[in-house]
């Protein structure tokens, strides 16, 4: 047993200079090509490859379709800056998504995002064990812990929508009820099995988009609409929010791993970004044009037609449960890989003295229960969203893909491409630091407002 648990050589097999074998060696299966392959994932690779471009598109889009928040970003930043940031976020994240696809195409033996982090760390530090460790654990924490915290935020959002639909029980009870649904949904083992939930979520977001446009047409423009110019703080908070809205890259290597034809993954990316761009521009301009600085982060809070608002909250609830499923799948698969708990299978193989399905179920119930306690102890979830957006989404979506692309394609990149990557890297670091600072200040304020275990309402409030 005497192996170092913190060493990715134990968790994710050895990575060294042989990992840079020529493409021909990779194809013919030589010793150089197999060096550095994650054998735990490789053993399950064939079983995992079941998804199609359409299913992958539905999954990524259902997770990232946050167009209803865009008018709120416009209200905070002003429409000029908001449009600039929105176009930047869309373009930057599309480019980095395609970068990740190219890197995965060049290095098909890398089957997870943390594996890619270990490879990049090893290359940057010339094969150093510490470089591998730093790369692996930085990406693992951003992926697993970042998505875990995003799921905490989504659990709180689900509770808010429950409370909006059925206002009698207190918010605390609705978090507990949302937790009950989440425990069941958390047992979905991989992305492929989540297709049904993703389809429901995608349907809900499509109907919601139509409902928002109809509501804006019915409500009409407010009599006195003011428009915000914005300041440095609101701009960076808005940028952190945009990072969160476009932050789906944490699942890209794993989603590509599950495709029957991984070379078609870029097709899913193009479909997703076409959908994101269209819906965000339409809802952003219409919502901000109608409500100006009064536009809420959830645009439905601006509407007065009660039937429509109720329907909208039901649709939001369905959509966020879908996002909860994907966020939990990626964080829990990352944790399962660390613990070497099989991603698939129920009776076999045996894991930790129990059937794999039992071990997986116990782990996931434990993790979702931890999310419940965090959601109860953090009464204001907006700052948690900002923190995860600044940390996880910025690193995985904007920062690391540029670094990985540079490492893998360094000898083939033009000076122009290197300068572009350098600029994007500096910008991403700045956003991460400033956005995380602002979110942490908000979280500290929230924590002091409600000391531990003094929840906003009592369990006795349930009628």
Automatic annotation (TrEMBL):
Keyword 4Fe-4S listed: no
Domain of life: Eukaryota
Subcellular location: Membrane
Keyword Transmembrane among record annotations: yes
InterPro entries linked: AA_transpt_TM
Gene3D superfamilies tied to this protein: Amino acid/polyamine transporter I
Domain Amino acid transporter transmembrane: start-end pairs: 52-439
Gene Ontology cellular component annotations, sorted alphabetically: membrane
Keywords of this entry: Membrane, Transmembrane, Transmembrane helix, Transport
Main subcellular location: membrane
Transmembrane residue ranges: 136-165, 171-188, 195-218, 230-252, 273-291, 311-341, 362-381, 387-409, 421-445
Name of protein: Amino acid transporter transmembrane domain-containing protein
Source organism (scientific name): Rhodosorus marinus
């Amino acid at each position: 047993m005497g192996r170092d648990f913190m060493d990715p050589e134990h968790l994710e097999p050895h990575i060294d200079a042989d990992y840079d074998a020529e493409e021909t060696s990779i194809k013919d299966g030589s010793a150089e090509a197999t060096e550095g392959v994650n054998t735990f994932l490789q053993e399950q690779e064939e079983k995992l490859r079941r998804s199609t471009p359409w299913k992958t598109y539905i999954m990524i889009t259902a997770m990232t379709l946050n167009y209803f928040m865009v008018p709120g970003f416009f209200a905070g930043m002003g429409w000029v800056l908001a449009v600039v940031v929105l176009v930047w976020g869309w373009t930057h994240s599309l480019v980095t998504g395609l970068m990740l696809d190219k890197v995965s195409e060049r290095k098909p033996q890398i089957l997870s995002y943390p594996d890619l982090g270990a490879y990049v760390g090893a290359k940057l530090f010339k094969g150093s064990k510490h470089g591998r460790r730093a790369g692996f654990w930085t990406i693992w924490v951003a992926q697993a812990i970042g998505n875990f915290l995003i799921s905490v935020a989504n659990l709180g959002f689900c509770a808010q929508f429950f409370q909006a639909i059925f206002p009698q029980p207190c918010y605390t009870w609705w978090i507990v009820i949302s937790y009950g649904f989440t425990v069941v949904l958390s047992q979905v083992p991989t992305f492929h099995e989540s297709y049904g939930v993703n389809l429901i979520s995608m349907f809900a977001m499509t109907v919601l988009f139509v409902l928002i446009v109809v509501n804006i047409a019915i409500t009409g423009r407010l009599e006195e609409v003011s428009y915000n110019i914005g300041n440095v703080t609101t701009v960076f908070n808005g940028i952190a929010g945009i990072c969160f809205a476009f932050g789906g890259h944490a699942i890209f290597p794993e989603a590509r791993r599950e495709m029957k034809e991984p070379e078609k993954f870029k097709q899913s990316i193009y479909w997703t970004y076409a959908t994101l761009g269209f819906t965000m521009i339409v809802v952003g301009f219409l919502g901000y044009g109608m409500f100006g600085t009064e536009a809420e982060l959830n645009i439905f809070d601006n509407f007065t037609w009660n039937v429509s608002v109720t329907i909208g909250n039901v649709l939001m609830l369905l959509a966020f449960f879908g996002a909860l499923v994907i966020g939990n799948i990626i964080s829990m698969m990352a944790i399962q890989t660390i613990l070497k708990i099989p991603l698939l299978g129920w009776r076999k193989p045996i894991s930790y003295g129990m059937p794999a399905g039992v071990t997986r179920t116990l782990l996931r119930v434990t993790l979702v229960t931890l999310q419940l306690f965090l959601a109860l102890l953090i009464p204001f979830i907006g700052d948690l969203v900002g923190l995860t957006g600044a940390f996880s989404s910025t690193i995985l979506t904007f920062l690391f893909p540029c670094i990985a692309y540079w490492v893998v394609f360094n000898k083939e990149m033009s000076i122009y491409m290197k300068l572009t990557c350098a600029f994007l890297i500096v910008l991403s670091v700045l956003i991460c630091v400033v956005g995380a600072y602002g979110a942490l200040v908000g979280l500290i304020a929230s924590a002091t407002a409600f000391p531990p275990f003094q929840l906003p309402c009592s369990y006795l409030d349930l009628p």
